[in-house]
Predict the structure.
Amino acid sequence: MIGDNPSPTRSNRSTGSGLLTVARKEFTDHLTNRTFLLFAVLLLVVCIIPFQQGLAGYHAKAQAYAEGPIITAWGVEEFGSVPPAAADVYSGLPRAAFSTTGAILAIAMGFDLVSRERQSGSLKLLLVRPLFRDQIITGKALGGILALTTLVFAGLAASLGLLLVDGIVPGLDDLVMIALFGLVTVAFLSFYFSLALMISTMVPRTGKAFLYALVAFFVFTALVPAAGAVAKDVVCGPHPPPGTDFSERDAYQARLELVNSVVTVFAPQWNYELVATSALEPRLTGYTFIEGSIMHLPYDETARPTDALARFWQNVLVLFMAPLVLFGIVFIAFQRMDIR
C-alpha cells in the first residue's frame, strides 16, 4: 500500500534503505534521549540490590555444597545437595527490576513516537519525503526494539564481567540460560513498547496518549491480578482443610491451576516472571502466583536449559506473540491515519 508519497512504485532497494534510515534514526534518538538515559540509569540502580542478593545466595549455596548435604529425619536436605549455577544470580531481576521499572521505560519510549510528530506537524513533512508509511512505522518500531535489546544485552554483558571479577565462571548452560533470559526480557519490554506505540498512533494528543498508557499499565499490573484473586475465590472456593478426601483436593488444585494459567496469560508481569524464571531455572515445574507456590524437580534430577520453557510453552508463545499482535494493530492504524 502506498502512503502519501506521490511515486506510484518503489523498488525493493529503496524500501530497504528507507526502512533502515528510519530505524537508524530512531535507534540513535532513543540512545541519546535524556528520558531514555534517565530510566536506563534508574533501571541499573534498581538491579543492583537483587543482583547483590543473587551473588550472596550463590556463595551461600557454594559453601553449603562444599560442606555436604544435611541429613534430617525427613531425608536429605535439598539445600547443599546440588552445586549452584551462575544463572541463579539473576533470579531476582525479573520481579524486582524489569517487571515494573523496565515496563515504565518501554512506555516512556513509545507513548509519544507518533502523537508528538503528528501534533507538531513534522509527521506530515516526513511523509512528503521519499518514504512510505509502512517504512516509517516499521522503522520506528524496529529502532525502539533495537534500543531495548542493546540496553538489556549490554547490561547482561556487564553483569557477566562482574561475575568473573567475583570469581564466578559461568558454564555453557549458564550462558545459554542467561541469553534466554535476555531474549525473554526483550520480548516483555517490546510488549509495553508496542502497547505505548499503539496508543500513540491512535491518540492524536501526546498528553492523552501518556494518560492512556498509564491507565493501560495500571490495568495490566493491578486490576488483572486483583481480578485473578477474586476469580480464585469464586471458582475455586475455600482451600480444603486437612483431612479432606484426595479427590476433592485434586479437584480444587485443578480449578486453581486453571484460574492461575488464565490470569497469568492476561497479566504481562506474571507471564514474564514465569517465563523468565523458567529460562533461569530449568528444573521449574510449577509457578502459582495466586497462592505463591513454586515447584521444582527433585534435587537428584538434572534438566537442560530449555526444559522448563518447554513445559510452559503456551506462556512463551503468548509472551512473544503479544508484541507482534500489537504491532499489527499499529501498522494498520498508521496506514489508515488521516494526517491532514
Q: What stands out?
A: The two ends are 18 Å apart (CA to CA). The first strand starts at residue 71 and ends at 72. Residues 34-67 form the longest helix (34 residues). Confidence is low (pLDDT under 50) at residues 1-8.
